TrEMBL record:
Residues 36-360 form the Apiosidase-like catalytic domain. Residues 1-29 form the signal peptide. This is Glycoside hydrolase family 140 protein. It comes from Spirosoma liriopis. The keyword RNA-binding does not apply. Keywords: Hydrolase, Signal. Pfam families: Apiosidase (PF13204), Collagen_bind_2 (PF12904). One of its GO terms (molecular function) is hydrolase activity. The keyword Hydrolase applies. Residues 363-453 form the Putative collagen-binding domain.
């Protein structure tokens, strides 16, 4: 008679054979986040809005010791970041190159043989993030462990069966943690003619089942392009994620709008836009390092086009570069000297603005802007609620606004400075006709947000 053994029991048996103690079984704990009732945003389970302000820290779990990890997390919490994106099986030879304590994640790179000592370090960082009020957007693996055809170290270790088993293992391990957002994928698009889609689905299904079902997890997919191409209809995909890449001339608002208009309605966001201090289009000699103004533009253009949140990244920080480590893509300085760059500081002001007005009613609305440009440096991008509007001028260009779309007979205008997080009072206007607005200053490094408020609402000026 054939005896059937469940995948997780198989993992347990193999783990005991190599002397590993797995995390004890715990009761299922629901994630403290969910998709909003209108399908556009993330909220706490209570319904309170949650603004996803992410930082890219792909190598955090692999390269930093505990002291440095706390230093990094504290810095990001102090700046108002709410989410840290990090990878369990890291990109840079994460299966064979040991972490800060000499540990690798698996015995003999076998995903059915987890190394408890490695995962204890992951546990510590997740717990420290939770203490600081941070959510961990956790990638179970980088994509080269499934597909390293174009680049990556690998090795490729996952198939449909063991990806599901690994999902069950890691999902079970962290099912009691309420501060986990799961990110399947890792800088990879599924290959045509392959079973990559099934492998990724196996991983997602394993996590979901271990956590006690779809309602207990929040999950997305990190691609090279956009998750909706393959997984928009999948039940486990709660929100879409884009990677708009590391060139400044990308019309990010078009990519956000594409996913925003899909059916069924799901939140969408840019999970990897242009990084601060990265060689533009990966060519340092030709293009130099990314302009911080372009980094900031991506955030406002994404959000005003309908994104529920935004992720910032810095070239030195994502790889946790420091002297003595192999550099990737020409990092400008060590990670610990890059924590307070102006682009990172300006993300504090992004969140301040987005949370200053009713959050869950916000929609993109380009009908308010009379003329526009498809050049990212000259773009005017508009978003609004019922009684307010934010209109972003990417380089301080003047623009005309169609009034009367907002509620109220009169509107108060103010100018918000994305570089300082302060606002300047403007005039009060009748809410009719077409009105021209000219930002206080103009230039490549002089972006501004026009705030229009229904004068009867009593909104606080920032």
């Amino acid at each position: 008679m054939k005896v059937s053994i469940s995948p997780f029991i198989a993992v347990l048996v193999l783990s005991l054979m190599v002397g590993i103690t797995l995390t004890p079984t715990v009761a299922h704990a629901q994630s403290d986040l969910r998709v909003s009732d209108n399908g556009r945003f993330l909220v706490y389970t209570s319904g309170k809005p949650f603004f996803y302000l992410g930082d890219t820290a792909w190598e955090l779990l692999h390269r930093l010791n505990r002291e440095d990890a706390v230093r990094y997390l504290t810095n990001r919490a102090d700046k108002g970041f709410t989410v840290i994106q990090a990878v369990v099986l890291a990109e840079h030879d994460g299966l064979r190159d040991p972490n800060a304590y000499g540990q690798v994640p698996f015995v003999d790179t076998d995903p059915t043989k987890p190394n408890e000592a490695y995962f204890k370090h992951v546990d510590f960082i997740i717990e420290q993030a939770e203490k600081l009020g941070l959510h961990m957007a956790l990638l179970p693996t980088w994509g080269d462990k499934i597909n390293k055809d174009k680049w990556g170290i690998g090795p490729e270790i996952f198939d449909e069966q063991n990806s599901y088993q690994y999902g069950k293992f890691i999902g079970n391990r962290y099912k009691a943690k309420k501060n986990i957002i799961w990110i399947i994928g890792g800088d990879r698009n599924p290959r045509k003619g392959s079973n990559d889609v099934q492998v990724w689905r196996g991983l997602a299904n394993g996590i979901t089942e271990a956590a006690g079902g779809k309602d207990n997890v929040l999950m997305t997919f990190h691609p090279q392009t956009g998750s909706s191409t393959w997984f928009h209809q999948d039940d486990w995909l709660d929100f879409n994620m884009l990677q708009t890449g590391h060139c400044p001339d990308v019309n990010v608002w078009e990519k956000i709008s594409h996913d925003y208009n899909l059916s069924p309605t799901k939140p969408t966001m840019d999970g990897e836009p242009l990084y601060e201090d990265i060689p533009v289009c990966f060519d340092l000699k030709k293009n130099g390092y990314a302009d911080v103004n372009d980094v900031r533009r991506k955030a406002y253009q994404d959000l005003f086009a309908g994104a529920h949140g935004h992720t910032y990244g810095c070239n030195s920080v994502w790889q946790m570069y420091e002297p003595g480590r192999k550099p990737y893509i020409d990092p400008a300085k060590p990670w610990f000297e890059s924590l307070d760059l102006p682009g990172a500081a300006s993300m504090t002001y992004v969140r301040k603005l987005m949370e200053s007005r009713p959050f869950l009613e916000r929609i993109p609305d380009q009908s308010m802007v009379i003329t526009n440009s498809d050049n990212p440096k000259n773009r005017i991008q508009a978003t609004r609620g019922n009684g307010y509007a934010f209109i972003y001028s990417s380089s301080g260009q003047a623009f005309e606004v169609k009034m009367g779309i907002l509620s109220g007979k009169k509107v108060k205008a103010s100018w918000y400075n994305p570089r300082t997080g302060t606002a300047m009072a403007g005039k009060t206007y009748l809410n009719t006709g077409i009105q021209k607005f000219t930002p206080p200053t103009q230039g490549n490094d002089q972006d501004w947000v026009l705030i229009l408020d229904d004068a009867s609402q009593g909104f606080t000026r920032l």
